[in-house]
């Protein structure tokens, strides 16, 4: 079962990814390419539907040029 703390973390991650994409005017496809992922997976992450590995989260942070802390902080 998902704890509220973990769900909240996924929600923060999702909100921050959407925020950074909007700031950069990137599509999910552009982010997926930059983070070596798929558009479908980025979509699921942004909806908070999947558990994200540390490696994928780091790839996304690197694509945006931000820290992992930036991705999981309050949006």
Task: Kindly give the count of domains.
Answer: 1
Beta-strand residue percentage: under 5%
Please bin the fraction of helical residues.
55-70%
Which fold name corresponds to the CATH topology? 434 Repressor (Amino-terminal Domain)
What is the count of DSSP helices, taking H or I runs of 4+ residues?
Answer: 5
Radius of gyration: 11 Å
The total beta strand count reads 0
Task: Outline the biggest β-sheet.
Answer: none
Tell me, rounded to a whole number, the average pLDDT: 93
Assigned CATH architecture: Orthogonal Bundle
| CATH class label | Mainly Alpha
The assigned structural class equals mainly alpha
Shape: globular
The CATH superfamily is identified as lambda repressor-like DNA-binding domains
Order of helices and strands: HHHHH
Q: How widely separated are the two ends? A: 25 Å
Poorly predicted sequence stretches spanning 5 or more consecutive residues: none
Description of the molecule:
By secondary structure, the protein is an all-alpha fold. It has one domain: 434 Repressor (Amino-terminal Domain). Helices cover 69% and strands 0% of the residues. It is built from five helices and no strands. Helix 2 (28-34) packs across helix 3.
Q: In summary, what is this structure?
A:
With 75 residues, this protein is mostly helical.
């Amino acid at each position: 079962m998902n704890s509220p703390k973990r769900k909240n973390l996924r929600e923060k991650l999702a909100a921050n990814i959407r925020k950074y994409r909007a700031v950069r005017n990137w599509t999910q496809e552009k982010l997926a390419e930059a983070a070596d992922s798929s558009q479908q997976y980025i979509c699921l992450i942004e909806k908070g539907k999947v558990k994200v590995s540390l490696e994928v989260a780091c790839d996304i942070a690197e694509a945006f040029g931000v820290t992992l802390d930036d991705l999981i902080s309050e949006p």
